[in-house]
Amino acid sequence: MGYNDVYAAWKADPEGFWMEAAQAIDWDKPPSKALFEKGNDLYEWFSDGMCNTCWNAVDRHVAGGRGAQAAIIHDSPITGRKEEITFAELQDRVARLAGVLRAKGIEKGDRVVIYMPMVPQAVEAMLACGRIGAIHSVVFGGFAANELAVRINDAQPKAIIAGSCGLEPGRVVKYKPLLDGAIEIARHKPEFCLIFQREEERAELVPGRDFDWAEEVATAEPAECLPVEGNHPSYILYTSGTTGQPKGVIRHTGGQLVALNWTMKNIYNVDPGDVFWAASDVGWVVGHSYIAYAPLIHGNTSIVFEGKPVGTPDAGTFWRVIEEHKVRSFFTAPTAFRAVKREDPKGEFLKKYDLSALNAIYLAGERADPDTIIWTQEMTGKPVYDHWWQTETGWTIAGNPVGIEALPVKLGSPTVAMPGYDVQILGDDGHPLPPGELGAIAVKLPLPPGTLPNLWNAEDRFRKSYLSHFPGYYETGDAGMIDEDGYLYIMARTDDVINVAGHRLSTGGMEEVLASHPDVAECAVIGVADPLKGQAPVGFLCLSKGVNRPHEEIVAEVIKLVRERIGPVAAFKTAVVVDRLPKTRSGKILRATMVSIADGGEWKVPATIDDPAILDEIRDALQGVGYAK
Ligand code: COA
Ligand code: AMP
Q1: Partner of 415 at 20 to 30 A CA spacing, among 156, 182, 297, 406?
Q2: Could you tell me which residues come within 8 angstroms of residue 382 by beta carbon, excluding any fewer than 6 positions away?
Q3: Pairing label, strands 488-493, 473-482
Q4: How far apart are CA 195 and CA 119, in angstroms?
Q5: Burial tier of 313 (Cβ tally within 10 Å: 0-12, 13-18, 19+)
């Protein structure tokens, strides 16, 4: 069957399609049906089945004869260390860690926050939670204490599992002071913390609250897998929205198992036993789905890579890892290849390595610009597939279903809707638009298994963010179009989310930080085009009356403030002081026009603008910091 047949088969019988896919998963009690309608546009999948994530990701492979196969390869060019962990070893390590958590009172449904660098223990912590039915919430290491505190308050974890440090090139990021700071600020306090001590930095433990991972695991009683309902949350992952309060995306156990397992062959075209590598971070959805879960569920070897595309030690790192571990499918963000291309435009490093094991390269996380795709294709001689998805969906909305049929690549398009997604382009009035017309990208409800059923403790926000604008649809927050052949094109966000080096960030969240500076009366943050990171944030500050300190001082202070409050990952390095912000007559800041000016393209003076002269001031200010050329 080709893609069209498979897509049509899903559309004709979604229930049958997903029940069949569910057979590839081990159930302690099989679900009686796939879709459960909860009413009022809420849906769940496989709710009455009983299953366990860790069993499916680890134990069943040991039982099925893969015990000696590498489950995880840790490759850390930053430390020079490499480690292979077989499925049998992983089972033992995870069972013991789960035993530690259980002995300390963690029960089914309890939340556990995980704040870890790219070490195998991060994946082990996630799996250990799943083993006993605890719900994990991983927080990316590049976030500062305040962001961690916001997540602790929302998820209310009974425990926090943290590494003693992360390693950035040339810099040890001490996690413990950040963790202690977060617990100090947070209203909610965890009962205990489990600290994984790394050689590069041994953290001071707080007696009675903090426990040493290695010591605890050494004497732990292993815990067995606890079957949970298909609709039991596997995890909460916070993602940026329009405000500084992140959205807690929930993932259910059954749907995640079924959907992710389906993607490994049909999208990434790997068979059990093959090596799969997603060069991302466990703190992002790509890391959840394609470092921790999908490869292991499907019986693949997953690479946990602690390094950067360049500088660790050079622009050949990706190719070295691919050769050395015989990676078959490789997934990263376009920004990573832009970084490699910048350092090694002629692919000199690449020539030193043998990429014959590699079948294809997959890109996601941000728009894949045609230049980057073409360069990567030409240099590697491998097909490069863009695919589009979000934290909310957990897996591909639109991609190239290579395991079913490799469709022709059209540059600028992530290809076609995957089975499970009825993608439509809607006009402002909510009506579907014809091919070639630009509109809001929405998915007809229900969303497929493995996608978000709701937001953690925030059903109203879930409805407002995703369901209420276009009744009967999930609103993706992206705008784009579909061509005559059904190929989708993603053009822009419709909200205040920006994408910096593949990291999803909220300009609204940054504005909240700028506005908290005592000298700032009003502010705006926009995402401007950046040749390496895709987008970069730029802040505009209007100062309070009577403030006459040097502008550079205030700019330096707000940059520091964003780094302290949100974290280095915000990559907030540029701000300008202006007298006024361009607004509509009703007072709405004209951010889109500011972006057009910054990017140096054509821009029109909006008909609704209050005072067009302000746009010239904005252009001048942007030129002063290297934009609007
Ligand atoms: N812990 C602590 N700090 C972190 C961090 C982490 N896990 N990850 C990033 N940071 C820091 C960086 O050190 C940097 O700090 P600096 O301002 O002191 O230099 C800052 O956050 C910004 O990071 P980033 O935007 O990633 O820029 P970079 O210059 O370090 O690297 C790339 C640029 C392109 C090499 C890098 O972004 C990359 O490898 N991207 C791959 C894409 C990816 O992983 N996407 C995730 C979704 S698929
Ligand atoms: P995240 O939730 O961090 O994965 O970010 C999701 C958002 O990143 C999407 O809503 C898009 O705006 C953007 N995005 C992800 N993948 C792509 C892609 N392949 N092409 C264009 N934009 C993408």
Answers
A1: 297
A2: 355, 358, 359, 360, 361, 376
A3: antiparallel
A4: 13
A5: middle
Q: Establish whether residue 280 lines the binding site of ligand 1, counting it when its CB lies within 6 angstroms of any ligand atom.
A: yes
Inter-residue contact 116 to 306 (CB < 8 Å): no
In this structure, the residues whose C-beta lies within 6 A of any atom of ligand 2 are 239, 285, 364-368, 386-388, 390-391, 414, 476-478, 490, 493, 499, 504
How far is residue 238's CA from residue 455's CA, in Å, rounded to a whole number?
Answer: 9
Rounded to whole angstroms, the Cα distance separating 479 from 391 reads 17
Write down the pLDDT at residue 496: 87
The closest of 438, 440, 430, 401 to 418, measured between CA atoms, is 401
pLDDT in tens, 424-463: 999 999 999 999 999 999 999 999 999 999 999 999 999 9
CA dihedral 199, 205, 210, 212 (to 10 degrees): 30
Reported in sequence order, the residue ranges of 226-359 that DSSP labels E, i.e. its strands, are 228-229, 233-239, 247-252, 275-278, 301-305, 327-332
- Report pLDDT digits (tens) over 334-389: 999 999 999 999 999 999 999 999 999 999 999 999 999 999 999 999 999 999 99
Instruction: Give the tokens for residue 440.
Output: 């809001």
Instruction: Report yes or no: 317 and 77 within 8 Å, Cβ to Cβ.
Output: yes
Best residue for ligand 1 mutational test, from 147, 179, 308, 343 (most atoms within 8 Å of Cβ) = 308
In the chain the domains, ranked by start, together with CATH numbers, are 85-226 (3.40.50.980), 505-624 (3.30.300.30)
